[in-house]
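Module 6 notes. Inverse folding takes a fixed backbone as the condition and produces residue identities as the prediction. Think of it as a translation problem where the source language is geometry and the target language is the twenty amino acids. Below is one complete input and output pair. Work through it position by position during the lab.
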C-alpha cells in the first residue's frame, strides 16, 4: 500500500470525505447518480497539503465513471495549459491566469464563475 493510499484510511480524510459527500447531497456532481459508489476527486493537487487539508472548493463527489472521465480531462487540460504557459514569462502568469478566468466566466454557468472568483456575489 502506498503512503498516499494509507492516508486515505486516516480518520481526518474519512471526515473530509463525508463532508464533501454531504455537500453534494450524496450524489455524483457530474451525472447526479445516487445509486453508484461515490468517490472524492481532487481538482488539483498541492504538494504541501495532506488529502484532508484541501478546501471544499478543490474537492468534488463523483461516481467512478465520472471520476475516471474527470481525471482524463483534467490531464488533457493541464497539458493544454502547459502549452500556453510555455510562451508566458513567469512574471506574466497571474495576468494570464486572470485572462483565462475572465474568458471562462463569460462562457460558463454562474456556478463555474463563482468557483473561479469567490469574492463576487
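Target side of the pair, the amino acids:
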Amino acid at each position: 500500500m502506498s503512503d498516499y493510499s494509507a492516508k486515505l484510511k486516516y480518520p481526518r480524510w474519512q471526515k473530509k470525505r463525508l463532508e464533501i459527500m454531504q455537500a453534494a447531497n450524496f450524489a455524483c456532481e457530474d451525472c447526479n447518480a445516487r445509486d453508484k459508489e461515490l468517490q472524492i476527486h481532487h481538482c488539483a493537487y498541492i504538494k504541501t497539503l495532506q488529502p484532508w487539508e484541501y478546501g471544499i472548493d478543490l474537492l468534488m463527489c463523483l461516481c467512478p465513471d465520472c471520476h475516471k472521465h474527470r481525471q482524463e480531462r483534467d490531464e488533457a487540460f493541464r497539458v493544454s495549459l502547459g502549452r500556453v504557459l510555455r510562451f508566458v514569462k513567469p512574471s506574466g502568469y497571474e495576468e494570464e491566469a486572470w485572462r483565462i478566468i475572465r474568458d471562462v466566466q463569460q462562457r460558463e454557468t454562474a456556478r463555474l464563475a463563482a468557483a473561479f472568483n469567490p469574492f463576487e456575489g
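Reference fact for the lab report: The chain has two domains: 3-87, 89-121.
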